[in-house]
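Annex B. Sample input.
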Amino acid sequence: MTRVNLIPEHLIESRRARRTRARWIAALVVLVCVLSLGVGWTRQVRLRVIEKDQRLRAQLAQIESSSDRLAARTVTLKKSKEQAQRTLDAYQIVDRRNDWAPLLPVLAGATNGTVVLRTCALGPASAGGEPLNASTGELGLAGYELRISALTTDPAEAAKFVLRLEQTKVFDSVSLTRSSKQTVGGHSVLGFEVACTITRGRGAKR
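Annex B, continued. Sample output.
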């Protein structure tokens, strides 16, 4: 049995061309959809990376800030330790009366670069203190008095010097006993004297 195609050849080619174009269009639509999804996914990933980077930077900044605070705290504690050690040394000096040299850093620290020490004289406490024992070098029961004479260009620094000496907690009392204007090297300065007292055995009780 012989089959005869009655459809003209040009119509058959036209149909084939339309089907081919439809396939290509469908493929392009699918490709565009895939690219759109890929771009969207890439954008989301990028946003997540940026967000994570910002979080990490914020955490790093917090760590650096904490590190700075810790370093500052360490410096403060170190200074406190040094001050406490100087105070302890001074307490031990009061009981033994062997060497007064450790008192010098205490006095130097109190000058704060604004006060110039002239003289430091150690003697028995003026308020009922017994004199030093010449044979043992020990203090009488009342303790001792350290008299300091100094100079400063700013009268307010004299009061601050007294306050800084009090803050060392080495002395039982610190008082400004005398002040007067003087001329040194052609410059007008304030000369003043300070009396510092410590009770005998004070260091052993603390």
